[in-house]
Amino acid sequence: MSIRRAAQRQLKEKAGELMRENRRFHMALIAQCPSRWQLHFISTLYDQSERFRRLSLINLREGPNEVVEHELIMEAAFRRDEEAACELLRAHIEHSNSRVIETVFPQGTVAKEPTGSSTDQPVYPLYKKGLST
Predict the structure, then answer these.
(1) Rounded Cα–Cα distance for residues 129 and 126 (Å)
(2) What does the alpha-carbon distance between residue 41 and residue 32 come to, in Å, rounded to a whole number?
(3) pLDDT, tens digit, for every residue of 85-122?
(4) Rounded distance between C-alpha atoms, residue 119 and residue 123, angstroms
(5) What DSSP string runs through 43-103?
(6) What pTM was computed for the model?
């Protein structure tokens, strides 16, 4: 039992560290925004969405893709390539959202719209694709 507890503690520590570093990275991207209100608003949105990102840690798969996404965003920001940085960030957020949805609604548990409806897309309770953006 002590090995299991130690492993769980290590996972919690790593998860906490990943969450703190991720927040620091994303807040650094907007640090030069001249609007204190906007910074506060974005920070609040980030904090409120953290509970969902924590869900994705259930299936922790941090690997090269996560690191590469952050590196590409950072490089675009350093080049002051606003268009590329925004597109990369949008894709990164979309990827993160997908991981959360895959965790909350595992394969096979998502209801489908009735056949012949306007879309044959999965229906996520309390989540519709149009509301995510």
Answers:
(1) 10
(2) 14
(3) 999 999 998 888 888 888 878 775 655 555 555 555 55
(4) 10
(5) HHHHHHHHHHHHHHGGG---SHHHHHHHHHHHHHHHTT-HHHHHHHHHHHHHHHHHHHHHH
(6) 0.64
Chain centre to alpha carbon of residue 98: 8
Question: To 5 degrees, how large is the angle CA 76–CA 80–CA 62?
Answer: 25
Cα gap 60→63, rounded to integer Å: 9
- The CA dihedral of 90, 95, 35, 80, to the nearest 10 degrees, is -50
Q: Which residues contact 8 (CB under 8 A, 6 or more apart)?
A: none
Check: CB of residue 73 under 8 Å from CB of residue 89. yes
